[in-house]
Amino acid sequence: MLKLPGWEPHFHQRSPLFKPLQHLAKYFEKYQQWPGLKEYQQLLDNWPHPIKTLGNKNITVVPQAGRPNHFNEHYAPRIYHTGEIQTRLENWHDFFQYLSWFMFPVTKAIINAMHIPHAQQRIEHGGDSGRRSPVENMLSLFDEGGAVLVSSDESLLQLVRDFQWKALFWERREELSEKFVCVPFGHAVYEKGLAPYIGMTANCILLHSGKEYFEMNNTEQLVWIDEKLVALFKSGSTLKKPKDLSPFPILGMPEWDENNQQEHYYDNANYFRPGRR
Hints:
By secondary structure, the protein is of the alpha/beta class. The chain has eleven helices and six strands. The chain has helices spanning 22-25, 37-46, 75-82, 92-103, 105-124, 134-145, 154-161, 165-171, 173-179, 187-193, 218-235; strands spanning 60-63, 84-87, 146-151, 180-184, 201-208, 246-249.
């Protein structure tokens, strides 16, 4: 169980991990206590472009409901059919889930829609409601604990695929700031970033970019990632099961852990593992 802090108006200054959502965090810096659903909804209502589900429903935040009585009341179907995201008060996990819809609106809508037919088959046709398909497991892993690795140098991405962590994080450390970036996608990654620990790993999608990606501002980069992810999920050719995501020891990123300034940090094989068994 993570020991999380209470509300912090400047939570995004804790680590470079939070950089992708700093443009959103600024809207909440004025609150000295936890903002409520009214404040969450206010930002949604004032956002320049309405955030919608693939069912063409505007996203709204609502209180968490009790046990669902039929399929459309379950978490994902309710979002798809009504746009209503059940959100707990004073809860970092749900706060970051809410922010992720601003960051990756189309990908979030695609992931939500992809869950529906699989979940419906399980829940309405007498199957084991808790036994998800490989595709559902992959979607949930990425949506909760995923990140996107973008690099203009394919050889850096290959080091991730090959589990060559010391070569990536230490031997080529100076290149990372210009050619390699980790953008957390999953709300659980941001939640864990408030109380980071050795063992913290993200399930990643790797994207090769041109050099121009690193000349974009943060908003442009998020739009670029959103478009690339949508194309991947729509194709259905490469993302079918959890092992299609690349495990990534996220605290290896320079400055994401105050202790990773020394080479021996990367000798911890329990965290920087040599590969899948």
